[in-house]
Amino acid sequence: AYTAADVAATDTPGILELGLDIPGLVVPDRPMMAADRVRYQGEAVAAVVAEDRYAARDAVEAVDVTYDPLDAVVDPVAATDEDAPTLHEEAPDNVAVDWTIGDEERTREAFADADHVVAVDAVNQRLIPNPMEPRTVLAEYDEGTGKLTVTMSTQTPHRDRTLLATTLGLPESRIRVKAPDVGGGFGPKGHHYPEEGIAGWCSMQLGRPVEWQATRRENYLTGTHGRNHDSRAELALDGDGTFRALRVRSHAGLGGHLSTAGPGIATGYFGFSLSNQYRIPAVHCRVTGTFTNTAPIDAYRGAGRPEAVFLVERLVKKAGTELGVDPTELRRRNYVEKDEFPYQTPVAVEYDSGDYE
Question: DSSP for 132-169?
Answer without folding.
Answer: SS--EEEEEEETTTTEEEEEE--S-HHHHHHHHHHHHT
